[in-house]
Amino acid sequence: MISGKLNVNLMARLSELRDLAAMVETFGEANELPNRTNFIINLALEELITNTLIHGEFEEGIEPKIEISLDIEGSTVIVVVESNGSKFDPTQDTEPDTTSELQDRPIGGLGLHLVKSQADRCIYEWVDGINRLILEYKTG
Amino acid sequence: MASKIEVQENQLEGVLVLVPVGRIDSSNAPAFEKLINNHIDDGETNIIVDFGRLSFISSSGMRVLLIAAKSVRGSQGGKLVLCGMRDSIREIFSISGFDAIIPVVNTRADALNVK
For the complex shown, is ipTM > 0.85? Predict the structure, then answer.
């Protein structure tokens, strides 16, 4: 049974996202996480990884890698996402327009906003050429 | 690699009801976009999307709905209405401000009544 901690290494492919979602679901069930927590962690991983695969520039000759870990400390789930793509701090990303009328509303820019809005804490670090994003979610 | 999406289609009092099943994420949002666009191209101006069988949607799927809402309202004066959302999905429509520009209601019957 998975419990307490989950580590996943992804090759940089969108097709792996479904497998990751299933693993996160299993982790959530094994640890009796609330449905909402499961949903927002899955959403955050989908948005962050999609963003990395679409916009993250990987240096030529370096194998693109994304590493994900989930851990539970007390009533907090800690999600760490690391990638070796170009430096990108999502916590500094521009806030999207969420108020314009329908026809004026820009398409896109929403994913990272959802990630930041739903996490109780969001910390970015750039360490030895690795992007590390630490997200914390309180379950209690 | 792009994935397929299962979408059930019904007619309710002459309005097209789409019921996507499972997940809409970055892998199958293009397939969902193509399906909605085909209906709009075929002249559908009023569309209800029933979220009752949808467990997950990401910003890729929300983007498809925003484009479709603009399309039916802009050129044809129609409307896109969403119903049957679970709480976690409704929350992200609220955070994004989408619920202020695309009607979100509880049931299909409510959706038919949106003016």
Answer: yes
Terminal Cα distance for chain A, rounded: 23
- CATH T-level assignment (fold) for domain A5-138: Heat Shock Protein 90 (3.30.565)
Is A114 close to B59, i.e. CB distance below 8 A? yes
**Ranges of each domain in chain A:** 5-138
CB pairs below 8 Å between A and B: how many?
80
Task: Give the DSSP H/E element, type plus range, for residue A80.
Answer: strand A76-83
10 Å CB burial of residue A81 (0-12, 13-18, 19+) is buried
pLDDT tops 60 at residue A2: no
> What average pLDDT score do residues B100-105 get?
96
Put simply, whether A110 touches B (Cβ < 8 Å) is yes
Contacts B100 to A, Cβ<8 Å? 99
**Range with the poorest average pLDDT among A2-11, A126-135, B6-15, B24-33:** A2-11
pTM of the model: 0.92
In this complex, do B1 and A102 lie within 8 Å of one another by their Cβ atoms?
no
**Of the candidates B3, B66, B95, which has its C-beta nearest A107's C-beta?**
B66
For residues B52 and B49, give the distance between their C-alpha atoms in angstroms, rounded to a whole number. Answer: 9
Class of B6-112 in CATH = alpha beta
